[in-house]
Amino acid sequence: MKITRSLFVAACFGTLLLAQADAQSDRYAGIVDDPHLNVVPRTPAEAERIAKVLAPPQDFTAPQRFEDLPGGAATVRVKPNADAFSQPSANLSFEDELNFKVGNGLFRKIWVSSPSSTLASDGLGPLYNARSCQRCHLKDGRGHPPGPDAENAVSMFLRISIPDDAAGIAEIKDYLGTAPDPTYGTQLQDFALPGLPAEYRLQIDYEERAVTLADGTTVMLRDPTYTAADLGYGPLHPQAMLSPRVAPQMIGLGLLEAIPAADILALADPDDADGDGISGRPNVVWSDEFNRPMLGRFGLKAGAPTVLQQSAGAFAGDIGISNPLYRDPFGECSTIQDACRTAPHGDGDVREFEIDQEGLDLVVFYSRNLAVPARRDVGDPQVLHGKQVFYDAGCASCHQPSFVTSRLTDRPEQSFQLIWPHTDMLLHDMGPGLADNRPEAVADGTEWRTAPLWGIGLTQQVSGHTLFLHDGRARSLLEAILWHGGEAQPARDRVVNMPKPDRDALVSYLESL
């Protein structure tokens, strides 16, 4: 059983990994704290308890204790239907459940253009990808690429930037400087208000290729090519770098935000010091909220440090809504898009911004408290066998099964919870097949954050499809595994070569998450 990195805190108080943790603390001293959290420090006794709880399993004949509650006390037991990802944390107070529902209303609200009689909802665009948060995060679940007959990609877009060494950040070592495309900014919008052209139309062309498994099974993978077609404002910059992004699921974000940065950093092994071939490293990003470097946690390359910054950025970039963190009333309009920048906007009333701090905070509260559903079939022999295959294949080396969140003074829902997200929150080189060749902060063009796996088995029920990876190219969990390269190539090859019963059990385990 391969457990080198999965030992995590279980060995963190042993001599070897304690030394590793100290080394990581020195290396990442600037981001080891959590300014976004009000933390009660762990006592030595708590740390010892956590070490034992997070130790990797030695027995695969029965579930681990509390394994069926991936979100800890916030976990909800729900029917596996379209609303499975839209429930509040089970441990919310009555008063906070009301705040959750108000936040849900703002998350679902359809924004309209200015000027409008509905002052609380105007300010859309002028360029945008969707008219509400819910339009991208369908049922709070996973987005999808446009179908062959779709005119627009409602839950998918292209990020864009150009290389710019001068845009580095001195406080962040190895920061890969980029700048917005001079014409199109930092993301391409495929909708616009009347009288303005949209920036583009997303065109995807697939070429299929066969992968033959050791038992003779053939799996077809589709290799996408992305084109920014029908450009509305002239050509892209010659050095423009494009990165396709499908909207990810929303569950468990507050719990991921509450994991101690030090615990994530203890898993980092950028120089592969232990020789296991896995060299995960943190993304270090600039916090516009705290005006300092922080650990990146959110987004497909861990480009945002907090749920608030991720949410504020989505309001500005996806919908064109100004807010206290990103104040431009014209959203993503570039300096040469004059008609876009001078169009009517919605921040000239008592709100000051198109969504004010109170509204933004309610959306953030909603996003933090979308509950993780309880696991299903956790004790099924097929699932338990698949769990052992998951460990033996090396999947747990990156998809770290469990953490314990910080003890918090002001967020009881996320405070001191044993959670099972199956992610180390770190960047990994996933090989040329998945590379977007576009850097983001410290992340290079082949690196992606390990995707959390909790809830992945409910994708069909919630989102109506089984399209996975950052751009939805994989049409099944097996296809997603077969796209793994780079650091994950050995684990992928073990899946290719394993007997079909083991492979089927592995998929059953993933479907139970």
Tags for this entry?
single chain; 513 residues; alpha+beta; 14 helices; disordered N terminus
What's this model, at a glance?
The chain has 513 residues and is α+β, with helices and mostly antiparallel strands.
3D architecture notes:
- The chain is an alpha+beta fold.
- Helices cover 25% and strands 13% of the residues.
**Sequence of strands across the biggest β-sheet:** 4-3-8
Biggest sheet overview: 3 strands, antiparallel
Characterize the quaternary organization of these chains.
single chain
- Tell me the β content: 5-15%
Mean pLDDT: 93
Gyration radius, in Å: 22 Å
Q: How many β strands by DSSP?
A: 15
**Structural class of the helix and strand makeup?**
alpha+beta
Runs with pLDDT <50, length 5+? 1-19
Helix content: 10-25%
Q: Determine the N-to-C terminus distance.
A: 21 Å
Helices and strands, in N-to-C order? HEHHEHEEEEEEHHEEHHHHEEEEEHHHH
Shape: globular
Topology readout:
Layout: H1 15-27, E1 39-40, H2 44-53, H3 94-108, E2 127-128, H4 133-136, E3 156-163, E4 178-179, E5 191-192, E6 201-212, E7 218-229, E8 241-246, H5 253-257, H6 261-265, E9 284-287, E10 292-295, H7 307-319, H8 338-341, H9 357-368, H10 381-392, E11 403-404, E12 407-408, E13 418-419, E14 427-429, E15 447-449, H11 459-463, H12 477-482, H13 489-497, H14 500-512
